[in-house]
Design goal:
By secondary structure, the protein is mainly alpha-helical. It has one domain. Helices cover about 65% and strands about 5% of the residues. Bound molecules: NADPH dihydro-nicotinamide-adenine-dinucleotide phosphate. NADPH dihydro-nicotinamide-adenine-dinucleotide phosphate binds next to helix 14, helix 17, strand 6, helix 18 and helix 19.
Amino acid sequence: MAAAEEKEKVNANGVPLFKHAVTKLDSEMDKEVIYEFGGPVGVCAMMLGFPSLMYYFWVCLEYHQGKLITPASYSIEGIQSFVFNDIIQKVITGAFPHFLAVKIYMGFVLYSAVCAYTLPGPVIEGLGLPSLKGKKLKYLCNGLTYWYLTLFLSAVFHYTGIFRLTLIAENFGSIMSVAIIWGFTMSTLVYVISGIMGKHHRMSGNFFYDFFMGACLNPRIGHLDLKMWAETRVPWPVLFYISVSCALKQYETKGYISAPAAFMVLAHFLYVNACQKGEECIITSWDIFYEKDGFMLMFWNMAGVPFTYCMSSVYLMKYEQSTGITISHSLPYTIFLFTVLLVGYYVFDTGNSQKNRFRMEQNGSFMTRNAFPQLPWGHIKNPSYIRTEHGNLLLTSGWWGIARKPHYTADLMMSISWGLITGFGSFLPYFYFCFFVCVLTHRVSRDMERCAKKYGKDWDRYCERVPYIFIPYVF
Ligand code: NDP
């Protein structure tokens, strides 16, 4: 009833303000432990599998022009020789985490944390957290200042020779090793310290599963929210700089930057720019509101995202270095892919923005920012929505009137373009797309289940009103 009364307060855009009073169901769902990802066995396989796969891919890129290598024989000796001689030996010699790699990667991690702590930016309230009895945490959103400062400093450092950005591509394997070690170290530190401080939340009781999913919901050092920082400030900028580094390496050796290399720089620029300019929107996202800060998020953000999503850029560079041939395509094919990327980006940006700004309006935390680019249709005027008994509103205007996950479709469009721009010589540039299809399909089923439980018959009404998930009239 209290929620119903609050709904009467409507802002200038016609969106009712809802103070996110935590319901009994919210609290129950927030505490509920469900084994996902195959439970303890599945998560152990992933914790061992992620780094192994990253090293395997690295060997394929570094020594085999991106071809997927296999053992010469499937006998025990053949497999042993493959693992030790073809993988481990090469990793030890070619991807050793030497001091320069530590300085580059950890220097950036530290720099980004100091920026996140100190730079100016608006302070935005998150959603009311069931585990804190509805309390809203505050987030210092200085991502944009950090991003512009980083672009400026990196350009100055590169051109003055203080830090040549090509060093990243030259030491790629070693920097990746440092990132992998840091991913494990940070997950362990946060897990142990959360335990010491008694900040456990939604624990299953199985050590491996809890380590993977995390112990603490919102680990913080002062006002620095570690989960928010790890989601936005490290993975995407590192990914962008890997692509910049590969393109500069090409420029250094060939004297030009090819269209595919420029495409990858643009693609990664758009992604990282979107994360920084729309940082305040991320606060209402599922990762920040619900997921704990465990190995899954930390390792993937610190190591997995930058060092597997970059394979298109690294492949283009390595292929050229080992064959002397620059990958290029016909003009119509290139224009087509730039169009796919930009259209995908437009829907991704405006789709996320439409929903998150709508949620911020309900939360009373909506603000306009002059971050570039503010695309048309990013904020819906007088939106239509479905009222739920829970109190939350479900948006049915804009892209959200056309499909239930329009931003996933757009993200997938971009990811396939990252592969297609490299041609068809290797599977590795397509790994991101394949992996992402699995991630998003899994996320959709988790999310739909959660929403069906949370909103009951109102969710059914919403699904009737917006029947398609990804593509209207198709699926
Ligand atoms: P979503 O943006 O899909 O958020 C899901 C939540 O939004 C739901 O649980 C529900 O929350 C709320 N919601 C759903 N439909 C509506 C609606 N019509 N109106 C209002 N609220 C609604 O979550 P993600 O965090 O998965 O995705 C955000 C972006 O991040 C996407 O673009 C995705 O592609 C991208 N992403 C990228 C990854 C990468 O590795 N590149 C990985 C994961 C995501 P509630 O219960 O509070 O109502």
